[in-house]
Design goal:
The complex is a heterodimer of chains A (164) and B (288). With 164 residues, chain A is an alpha+beta fold. Chain A has helices at 25-32, 89-96, 106-119, 125-131, 143-163, and strands at 4-10, 13-19, 51-54, 57-60, 73-75. The radius of gyration of chain A is 16 Å and the shape is globular. In chain B, a hairpin with a 2-residue loop joins strand 4 (63-66) and strand 5 (69-73). The chains are: A alpha+beta (164), B alpha+beta (288).
Chain lengths: 164, 288
């Protein structure tokens, strides 16, 4: 099959390439753009390790073809750090609250939590659990992941208040 | 898991999409949210030679009142259904059901049209649509027609839709103000299909049930409209005896297969439990 052109913006950078239509977005990100934050976990759209942000939605990049992302704005965990290179509130939260052990699920967790906090700046613990229900972690038992998201929400809210 | 090779089409109009479907016949597949199709393609259980992507068809998105109905475009996502204020007000069972589908990431992609058109008995919206007596708008080369959800499903993955027809919208009669509703779904974990699920809409007047509609998910080859179960409630106070009759009527038509969710007897039993819970919760929500 012939390759077709795709253009998208990934972590603020314009990208264009030729791809086979059957190339999954997660493989495009990892193998063509060397962005290995999105992980290939279950490959069956259950585990959420490949979660990225696509046009303001949390999406499992193993269940989208790269050609479908034509024109899209994509953020991966590599695009999450602050402009000065310091860790974002969520990344800091996962570190401070020990929100990871092996780290395999972490990029997906962070990207999903990022979208959650865009939509709901002050979620309850129950809402955090519900909204992260498409991401599996086999190490932490989730407790510290919830705390990490809470940490980030509190920090971002305090920053917003200070700015007002 | 790498899907087979295919040619990718991205029509910019419904007519163009239908022309592509006609041209490629059973070699072509339309893709909406893709969260049923792409996993099947990875397993090579589906190997379309031509993939017709509907994502640029903005005319198939949106939720609008249309007289006594609400019309929802087929490309409207489950997430959009779940957060719609219009639906929360006029037809809240849709929000309740949408939030029980898969997980947040999948709901951002998965569409209402895909969910009802696919014919997968595990999908939740078909039974909800049967409960609400919704119709599906189908467009093909010969024009447009509507098919009631109650007449649409023939067997697992077989529906009244012709190969060159596209489900463009779902038309839902607005349930009466003050109606009670519930969608009860037992699943083993987030992201699982139902062991059994039941959709109930009922109306009460002067302490007695004026109308009741019940439909079942994933306990047969198709969604099941449990007409007798609903009728068992009409004219009663929805007391224990009436609920027990409705439960038995629903269990009578359930034909679940044994799978990793349990043996037939268990899933039939759960069907009854889901109907009971849904009726009881719908009753607490109905304005007498």
């Amino acid at each position: 099959m012939s390759k077709i052109p795709v253009k998208m913006t990934v972590n603020g950078r314009a990208v264009d390439d030729l791809v086979e239509p059957r190339l999954l977005l997660v493989h495009f990100l990892r193998e063509k753009l060397n962005l290995t934050g999105p992980h290939v976990g279950c490959e069956t759209s259950h585990c959420g390790a490949c979660t990225i942000d696509l046009d303001g939605m949390s999406v499992k990049s193993c269940t989208v073809f790269a050609v479908q992302a034509e024109g899209a704005e994509i953020t991966t965990v590599e695009g999450m750090a602050n402009a000065d290179g310091s860790l974002s509130a969520l990344q800091e939260g996962f570190m401070q609250e020990h929100g990871l052990q092996c780290g395999y699920c972490t990029p997906g967790m962070i990207m999903r939590a990022h979208r959650l906090l865009q939509e709901n700046a002050n979620p309850s613990d129950e809402e955090i659990r519900w909204e992260l229900s498409g991401n599996l972690c086999r190490c932490t038992g989730y407790q510290n992941i919830v705390k990490a998201v809470r940490y980030a929400a509190d920090k971002l809210n305090a920053q917003r208040e200070a700015a007002e | 898991m790498i899907p087979g090779a295919f040619e990718y089409h991205r029509p910019t109009s419904v007519d163009e999409a239908i022309a592509l479907m006609s041209q490629h016949g059973d070699e072509g597949r339309v893709i909406a949210g893709g969260h049923s199709l792409i996993p099947m393609m990875k397993l090579r259980l589906a190997e379309p030679g031509h993939l017709i992507d509907l994502r640029d068809l903005d005319s198939l998105r949106g939720i609008q009142p249309a007289g006594r109905c609400i019309e929802i475009g087929a490309m409207t996502t489950q997430q959009e259904v779940a957060v719609s204020e219009l639906l929360a007000e006029a037809c809240p069972i849709l929000r309740e059901a949408a939030l029980l589908i898969a997980d947040p990431q999948v709901r951002y992609c998965g569409t209402l049209g895909g969910n009802v058109a696919n014919g997968d008995p595990g999908n939740d919206m078909p039974a909800v649509m049967q409960c609400l007596d919704a119709s599906f708008v189908l467009r093909g080369p010969q024009g447009e027609r509507e098919v009631r959800a109650r007449d649409f499903y023939e067997a697992a993955y077989f529906t009244a839709r012709a190969e060159d027809e596209l489900v463009t919208a779902v038309s839902i009669p607005i349930p009466p103000a003050g109606h009670g509703y519930a969608y009860e779904k037992l699943k083993r974990k987030v992201g699982d299909y139902a062991t059994a699920a039941a959709a109930v809409v009922l109306t009460m007047s002067g302490g007695s049930c004026e109308s009741a509609s019940i439909a079942l998910t994933n306990v047969g080859q198709t969604p099941l409209f449990a007409e007798a179960a609903g009728q068992a409630l009409v004219g009663t106070k929805v007391d224990e005896a009436a609920v027990a009759r409705a439960v038995e009527a629903a269990k009578d038509i359930a034909e679940p297969v044994a799978d990793m969710r349990g043996p037939e007897e268990y899933r039939t039993h759960v069907t009854g439990v889901m109907v009971r819970r849904a009726v009881e919760r719908a009753l607490t929500r109905a304005r007498a």
